[in-house]
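About this split. The held-out portion is used to measure sequence recovery: a designer receives only the structure tokens and must propose an amino acid at every position. Recovery is the fraction of positions where the proposal matches the reference. Here is one held-out target exactly as it appears in the evaluation file.
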């Protein structure tokens, strides 16, 4: 094996790769600081990598690439009251490299849980918050809204503690800012007591879903009437798979907890989960996509079969088991956050373009929802948000489809997910984010030499001051 092979890195989607001059996996915060300071002194750029689940080249560097997997300890669990949090808040501080599935296991063992999660748990905490990972829920924000403190290592190797009360600007751009302020070493999250969710998954006609979404102030709509609602629309059909996840009432939860403790999920439930998630959602779906690749004209019929093959099911499980699904079929993804009131028009325009273009898309379109928040670079900043995620199988061309969707969402001020494919640059982001210039000013003051920059951050945030001189 050549030295270049040993150093090379490729992301999960195989849309980005790098051959850095140096790779390292620090054992602790002190070693991390030393590695960063040495690289900066040598004029070497520095980036960190977690699971590589970003579809963008966010982690790419030709300098020092840091693997944070060994920074994965649960440092402490404490009641809140500091930094403006409520006195009853539960704060958990973890190494920034901990993977979400490991964090979920550790929290569950302590009787705790994240308030909301995305549907993949392979990412590191640092990567998930830095790129704006989110779940779904009209009254809930993305993962960055659950962050209450961050420790970040600067170009001088020094560790800086940040929170809403201490260096708030640095805190904002460190909790969601693509790692441009430094390398995250630890994150403090506000968590909640562990809870169960009742999951209801049902195929519905798409028109029925769209008619019943409801407005932001409608408590009876599908979005407002459920703790977590999302749906998957199968292109070339008028069918969707709906997912409604809701907390149990306290007395009902007590009964279910006792049942799970004494009997577990049972053989029938375990078999059903394997069939639905492992076979239909992965094994069979891989075959569907391969057939669509070989014979594109059959895609509409395959989608119609897929849309009807998933039978309704209802089950109760711990929250992180319900939020997360297994994704092993490799794909490309672009996701845009649009004002919720424009969602139906956006989906209608995508449907019309697919009809006109003759493009064949075997992957469903995923739609989720989020509450407005005040995180500077959050895709849900200041507005009720619907997320429209379009996917294409990795063996199929995605460019024409993604370009068309990007033009459609541009008409309503769509904001792309920072970790998924898109074509926007800093000038457009300045129009889309009210606090964009504030975030760039923090980056410029914190890292004027661009130690933590790469081509992607230069494109989306503009180059650091040293590169502009």
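Reference sequence for scoring:
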């Amino acid at each position: 094996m050549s030295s270049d092979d040993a150093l090379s890195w490729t992301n999960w989607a195989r849309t980005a790769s790098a051959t850095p001059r140096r790779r390292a996996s620090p054992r602790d915060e002190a070693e991390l600081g030393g590695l960063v300071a040495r690289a900066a002194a040598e004029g070497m750029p520095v980036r960190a990598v977690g699971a590589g689940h970003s579809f963008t080249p966010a982690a790419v560097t030709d300098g020092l690439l840091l693997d944070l997997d060994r920074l994965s300890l649960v440092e402490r669990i404490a009641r809140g009251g500091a930094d403006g949090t409520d006195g009853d808040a539960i704060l958990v501080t973890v190494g920034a490299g901990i993977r979400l599935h490991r964090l979920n296991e550790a929290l569950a063992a302590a009787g705790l849980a994240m308030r909301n999660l995305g549907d993949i748990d392979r990412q590191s905490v640092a990567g998930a918050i830095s790129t704006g990972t989110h779940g779904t829920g009209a009254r809930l924000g993305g993962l960055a809204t659950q962050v209450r403190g961050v420790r970040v290592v600067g170009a001088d190797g020094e560790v800086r503690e940040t929170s809403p009360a201490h260096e708030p600007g640095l805190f904002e751009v460190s909790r969601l800012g693509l790692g441009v302020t430094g390398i995250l070493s630890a994150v403090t999250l506000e968590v909640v007591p562990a809870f169960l969710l009742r999951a209801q998954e049902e195929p519905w006609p798409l028109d029925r879903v769209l008619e019943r979404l409801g407005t932001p102030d409608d408590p009876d709509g599908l979005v407002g009437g459920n703790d977590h609602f999302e749906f998957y629309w199968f292109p070339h059909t008028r069918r969707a798979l709906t997912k409604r996840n809701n907390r149990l009432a306290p007395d009902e939860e007590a009964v279910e907890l006792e049942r799970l403790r004494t009997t577990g999920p049972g053989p029938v439930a375990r078999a059903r989960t394997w069939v639905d998630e492992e076979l239909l959602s992965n094994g069979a779906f891989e075959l569907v996509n391969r057939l669509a690749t070989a014979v594109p004209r059959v895609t509409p019929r395959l989608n119609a079969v897929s849309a009807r093959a998933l039978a309704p099911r209802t089950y109760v499980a711990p929250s992180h088991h319900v939020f997360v699904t297994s994704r092993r079929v490799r794909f490309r993804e672009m996701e845009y956050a649009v004002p919720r009131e424009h969602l139906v028009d956006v989906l209608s325009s995508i449907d019309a373009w697919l009809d006109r273009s003759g493009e064949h898309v075997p992957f469903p379109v995923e739609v989720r929802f989020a509450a407005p928040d005040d995180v500077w670079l959050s895709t849900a900043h200041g507005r009720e948000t619907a997320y429209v995620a379009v996917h294409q199988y990795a063996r199929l061309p995605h460019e024409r489809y993604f370009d068309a969707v990007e033009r459609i969402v541009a008409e309503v001020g769509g904001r792309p997910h920072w970790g998924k494919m898109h074509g926007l640059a800093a000038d457009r982001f300045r129009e889309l984010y009210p606090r964009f210039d504030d975030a760039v000013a923090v980056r410029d003051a914190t890292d004027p030499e661009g130690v933590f920059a790469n081509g992607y951050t230069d494109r989306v945030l503009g180059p650091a001051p040293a590169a502009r001189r």
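Annotator remark: The domain at 74-193 is CATH 3.30.465.10 (Uridine Diphospho-n-acetylenolpyruvylglucosamine Reductase; domain 3).
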